[in-house]
């Protein structure tokens, strides 16, 4: 009720503004002295592969789905969704590399979590509504603050201020009770110096996957001051999310018995038709699902924990300063602070009490060492720092000296809220584990582009980065060797030198040729330290990136090809396994590579038709991969080693194809977009029963824009997602072990799959004042 009241208040403010601002140019954007840290952006003279997306392109798809889905049609990109409909926990892979290897910034300020290196888009719902434009660089790219780019980087710039006051109201509703409400207002330029903008959004869905409910709220507020040569911009944005867990995924056997929407998260027990309870100790949802299915078919019911939810609040603050000394020289400074606080709560069955700092208890004459319980795992962290760049833009030389210094401090801790039939004292405020991670991350770079002769330019980019990362305390992971929780005592220091260089040749106004070589290093993530094997210490990675590209463009046709070879040393490659909250686990691989060709073309046809396509053909391999299996998956037991030779890297399709065919006539627009993704292996062992099958998915969007009295424009439309009802999965996990039968070691495999929604519809409407 409170969030709807807040939305109503902002809506009333929007209407009061629009009552005064119905001129046709009320949304005109002026080139104010914008505060933008743009030294990390590539230009047509920069020899890297990149794609630019503007605000209009994002708005055409921004009806509720998370930002990864809005950029899913860019080259080499593949998206995933836990809830199955693109809202909630979503992610993106580019060139086969996951979100932990993609550097993401907004206004030049790093967004990646300092420890996990991931961007949790669920904490930034509807952020696309406040984005002016974005650039996606593939490969090493240009130097930026934050985690190293090991597959791509995403650089976002937030919205400009409008010259005149404005208001905008957007709404969507569709399948799975999916809805989105957004209200935006702006004062325009006041007294020739000041401007203010605000946005409030709510997004919710029941999700395609059973019980995968998502409730997201977000805001964005900015204030700006503009003088002749100086501008200051204060921005704050944040999100609050509550999602029911859907990260367990489901095996093929579970899908056959319970349907594709099956979700085992929160499973407590099953009752038969007479109401008799069969606990997890009797019927495990992972191993006894056939028996559970039989009970359900006979009139029984599966019971789930209703509070199996993830809850998080994250607020960002940015202060951006720009000053132009001369037409050629300018200075950018950004100061930032992010506060995050949240928890997830879950029901766990048959847990060893000693692993939670509890002693076994007596019940009816029996000693209970294992029991069902509810645990709450919490985080409380902050991230802050500053970035700067001094930029020179002359007739032949463009150069930037920049860098940043950032600090992260985060506490991880857990509590036990309830234990089944527990006899004894239980303090719900007691921490059964607690550890603290701190990270200092500093970098400095110098980059320059110099026009040599004609259209030939030389590019050089030198970056030095130093990281000090520490974790101390108890981890939520049992060490059987010591009989205690894992003791974390991580104190790592990294110094990386990342040079890049290349040439760009603008042959004439239509033809461009470029080539580059870059070096990147990347430190391990928190999960690499805490979720890997206890006897394995992760190492930093190194990437040598070779890029060669050609583009052609005229008024009606454009085409391009980019060839890349990414040579890795000690790449942290996903094993296919997941930790307890659905995040992928990884191991260092001595030698591996990714190579491919990215093809792009677009043509503007007569009578309002436009056709855009891109495709990626790639080969992603581990050299001489040796797999280690453990008996019953228990680390420390006798290992079974299998040499596979060269194998495909997990989650790396060999072929991706995107197609968009659009038609516009006056205010009407229709667009059919399709994506094909080839087969992906879930592990690096090339097991045919552990794969994501190839899929081909199409979406149809239809919209009509028109004018109304006192309204600048109104748009109504609808989107049909998965138009041809493809049954597919776009993410998963897998693992293997062995058992002994008749003295022989027998391998076994298992896998879980993230089923995606079939055909579903979302209607949308918007008003601009």
Q: Would you write up a description of this structure?
A:
By secondary structure, the protein is mostly beta strands. It is built from six helices and 39 strands. The protein has a 22-stranded antiparallel β-barrel. A hairpin with a 5-residue loop joins strand 27 (557-578) and strand 28 (584-604). The longest helix is centred in the first third of the chain and has 17 residues, at 2-18. It is globular and about 85 Å long.
Radius of gyration from the alpha-carbon trace, in angstroms? 27 Å
Helix content: under 10%
Strand content: over 45%
Distance between the termini: 27 Å
Mean of residue pLDDT values: 91
Shape: globular
Total helical segments: 6
Low-confidence stretches: 1-33
Number of separate strands: 39
Q: Give me the secondary-structure category.
A: mainly beta
**What about the largest sheet?**
22 strands, antiparallel, barrel
């Amino acid at each position: 009720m409170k969030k709807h009241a807040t939305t109503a208040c902002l809506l009333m403010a929007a209407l009061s503004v629009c009552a005064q601002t119905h001129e046709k140019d009320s949304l005109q954007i002026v080139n104010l002295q914008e505060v933008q840290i743009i030294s990390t952006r590539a230009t047509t003279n920069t020899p890297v592969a990149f794609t630019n997306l503007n605000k209009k392109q994002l708005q055409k798809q921004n009806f509720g789905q998370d930002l990864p889905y809005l950029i899913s049609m860019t080259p080499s990109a593949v998206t995933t969704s836990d809830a199955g409909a693109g809202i909630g926990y979503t992610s993106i892979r580019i060139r086969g590399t996951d979100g932990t290897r993609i550097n993401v910034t907004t206004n030049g300020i790093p967004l990646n979590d300092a420890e996990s290196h991931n961007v949790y888009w669920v904490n930034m719902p509807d952020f696309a509504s406040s984005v002016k434009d974005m650039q996606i660089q593939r490969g090493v790219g240009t130097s930026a603050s934050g985690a190293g780019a090991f597959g791509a980087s995403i650089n976002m710039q937030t919205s400009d201020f409008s010259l005149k006051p404005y208001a905008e109201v957007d709404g969507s509703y569709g399948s799975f009770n999916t809805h989105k409400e957004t209200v935006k207002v702006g004062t325009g330029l006041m007294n020739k110096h000041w401007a203010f903008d605000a946005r409030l959004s709510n997004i919710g869905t029941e999700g395609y996957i059973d019980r995968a409910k998502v409730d997201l709220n977000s805001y964005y507020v900015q204030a700006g001051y503009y003088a002749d040569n100086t501008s200051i911009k204060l921005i704050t944005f944040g999100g609050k999310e509550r999602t029911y867990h859907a990260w367990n995924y489901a095996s093929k056997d579970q899908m056959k018995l319970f349907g594709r929407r099956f979700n085992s998260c929160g499973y407590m027990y099953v009752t038969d038709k007479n109401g008799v309870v069969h606990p997890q100790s009797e019927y495990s949802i992972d191993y006894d699902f056939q028996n559970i299915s039989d009970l359900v078919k006979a009139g029984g019911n599966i019971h789930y924990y209703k509070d199996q939810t993830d809850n998080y609040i994250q607020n960002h603050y940015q202060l951006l300063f720009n000053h132009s000394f001369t037409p050629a020289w300018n200075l950018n400074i950004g100061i930032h602070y992010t506060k995050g606080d949240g928890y997830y709560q879950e029901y766990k069955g048959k847990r060893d009490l000693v692993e939670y700092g509890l002693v076994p208890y007596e019940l009816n004459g029996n000693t209970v060492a294992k029991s069902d319980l509810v645990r709450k795992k919490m985080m409380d962290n902050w991230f802050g720092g500053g970035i700067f760049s001094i930029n020179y833009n002359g007739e032949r030389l463009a150069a930037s000296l920049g860098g940043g210094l950032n600090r992260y401090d985060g506490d991880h801790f857990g509590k036990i809220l309830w234990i089944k039939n527990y006899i004894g004292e239980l303090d719900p405020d007691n921490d059964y584990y607690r550890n603290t991670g701190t990270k200092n991350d500093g970098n400095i770079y110098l980059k320059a582009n110099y026009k040599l002769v004609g259209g030939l330019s030389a590019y050089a980019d030198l970056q030095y980065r130093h990281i000090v990362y520490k974790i101390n305390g108890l981890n939520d992971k049992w060490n059987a060797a010591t009989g205690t929780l894992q003791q974390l005592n991580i104190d790592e220091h990294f110094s990386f030198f990342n040079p890049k260089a290349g040439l760009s040749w603008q042959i004439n106004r239509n033809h461009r040729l470029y080539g580059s070589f870059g070096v990147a290093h990347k430190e391990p993530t928190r999960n690499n330290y805490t979720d890997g094997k206890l006897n394995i210490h992760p190492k930093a990675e190194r990437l040598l990136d070779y890029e060669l590209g050609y583009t052609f463009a005229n008024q009606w046709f454009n085409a391009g090809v980019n060839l890349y070879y990414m040579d890795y040393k000690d790449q942290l490659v996903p094993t296919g396994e997941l930790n307890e909250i659905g995040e992928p686990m990884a191991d260092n691989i001595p030698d591996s590579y990714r190579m491919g060709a990215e093809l792009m073309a677009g043509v503007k046809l007569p009578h309002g038709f436009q056709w855009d396509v891109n495709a990626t053909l790639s080969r992603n391999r581990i050299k001489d991969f040796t797999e280690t299996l453990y008996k019953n998956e228990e680390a420390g037991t006798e290992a079974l080693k299998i040499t596979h030779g060269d194998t495909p890297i997990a989650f790396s399709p060999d072929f991706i194809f995107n197609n968009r065919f659009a038609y516009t006539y006056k205010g009407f627009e229709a667009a059919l977009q399709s994506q094909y993704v080839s087969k992906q292996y879930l592990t690096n062992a090339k097991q045919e029963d552990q794969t994501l099958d190839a899929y081909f998915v199409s979406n149809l969007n239809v919209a009509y824009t028109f004018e109304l009295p006192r309204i600048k424009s109104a748009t109504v439309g609808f989107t049909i997602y998965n138009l041809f009802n493809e049954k597919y999965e776009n993410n998963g996990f897998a693992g293997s072990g062995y058992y002994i039968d008749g003295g022989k070691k027998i391998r076994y495999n298992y896998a879980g799959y993230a089923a995606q929604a079939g055909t579903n519809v979302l209607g949308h409407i918007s008003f601009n004042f």
